[in-house]
Specification:
Blueprint lengths: L1 E2 L2 E4 L2 E4 L7 E3 L2 E4 L3 E5 L3 E2 L2 E2 L1 E3 L2 E4 L2 E5 L12 E4 L8 H9 L1 E3 L4 E3 L4 E7 L4 E6 L11 H25 L7 H8 L18 H4 L2 E14 L5 E14 L3 E3 L3 E18 L2 E18 L2 E18 L2 E18 L1 E3 L4 E16 L2 E2 L5 E4 L2 E14 L5 E13 L5 E3 L2 E2 L8 E12 L3 E12 L1 E13 L1
Parallel strand pairs: 1-4, 2-5, 3-6, 4-9, 5-10, 6-11, 11-13
Antiparallel strand pairs: 7-8, 12-16, 14-15, 15-16, 17-18, 17-34, 18-20, 19-20, 20-21, 21-22, 22-23, 23-25, 24-25, 25-28, 26-27, 27-30, 28-29, 29-32, 30-31, 32-33, 33-34
Amino acid sequence: MTDSSELNYYGGTIDLRSDSIRNTNLGNLKLFNNLDLKLDGSFEDLIIDTITADTFESNGFNIDISDIKLWSITDKRKFSVSPIGDNMDEQVKELLKDSIIYTAGDVINSPLYRYNTSYDPETGLITFERIENNKFNPAVYASAVAAQLGGYLQQLNTYHDVFRRMNTYMLLPKSKRLALKYQNKYAQSAKEEFLPYNEKLYSNKNGWISPYSIFENVGLKNGPSVSNVAYGTFGGVESEIMELPYNWDLITCVYLGYNGSHQAYNGVGINQNGGTAGVLGMAYKDNFFSGLTVNVGMNACEANTMYGNENFNMLLSGIASFSGYNFEFQEGRYIIQPNYLMSYSFIDTFSYTNNAGVRINTSPLNAIQLAPGVQFIGNYENGWQPYIGVNMVWNIIDKAQFKANDVSLPSLSVKPFVMYGAGVRKLWGENFSGFLQTYLTHGGRNGVGIQFGFRWKI
């Protein structure tokens, strides 16, 4: 509270925006020239900061309410408050009321809801009316957005990345793969000289590492449009090729990954950091292959909202299968590979209370992804293997129930999208190979991903 017995001002600006100022009494106020008085309009329990004066003389005066902060957790649909205090002479009250300029904006957020606001100079009231379409404060969506983009999309990226690494074996023609299996039993045909294949790189245990980056915008169904930047690195150790009954072969892999991401929407920023561990097996028979992976991970999340920084954690796990078949042309120089990826993901975002005092509760996200696709592969001289591919991705049953103070929030989900891209792989010497690829997404996700990696014999 600020008091003054007599204030004389000769123009300029007085800035009284402070959380510690609640009621300002300007005493006997005399103003000369033009002067702006700035108030922040912060209030709790729906009681706004007020301004009063004992007497008032002016030839130019503006009260600029330039910022409104609603700290009250209210479910009121409509209410009004006055920035002009009581216990004043009516003439002074009218002069102060007529001097108000409302510049705080048309939409104000409470800790839970969003409100349209307006000032009526006739009544001296600021009116708040709850927005019914897209009515929630963006801050209460933080954990839901984090679950969909930093959690669920991270899981999808994990499945695609690790299967892509294990699928490099199927970039080879069938004759080369048979040469691996029976390398000590028969010689390679002279027709296959176009691909100087190194059997050691596949018939021994291998290590690999694969960094990635993703830059995209995701328009969530029933929610905001989110800018998402994801990055990280996966690494794994593969077994040698193991022969199974009925002419099946098997390669297994243990992998670890670091995952980081940043989401931004409507003034809210979310940073996530975490790790993933998983196992994978790929079985091969002739030109058919099928793989299965399971993994588990944990993310630490920090959301930056209008109320400050908020921390919560996330548990991730999932299982996915990937199958396909190679159609070869010109003795394997060209390959068309239709494939199909299907996955189930479990994302559990732990409940927490945000800095505005709103309790955010959630049920786990259980999501299924269906992603049929096709890949076109070339095998050329000197170990070059270019490839292009496209997938159509559907996300089903990908909704979790989030609540803010027991009020149900809309279920957010990722709309279907198309993923297509190109890459090239190169074999060097006896023990080393590398690849570089990029892909684009359109639809529910719009962006670009970049990935490169290396494999070496252990």
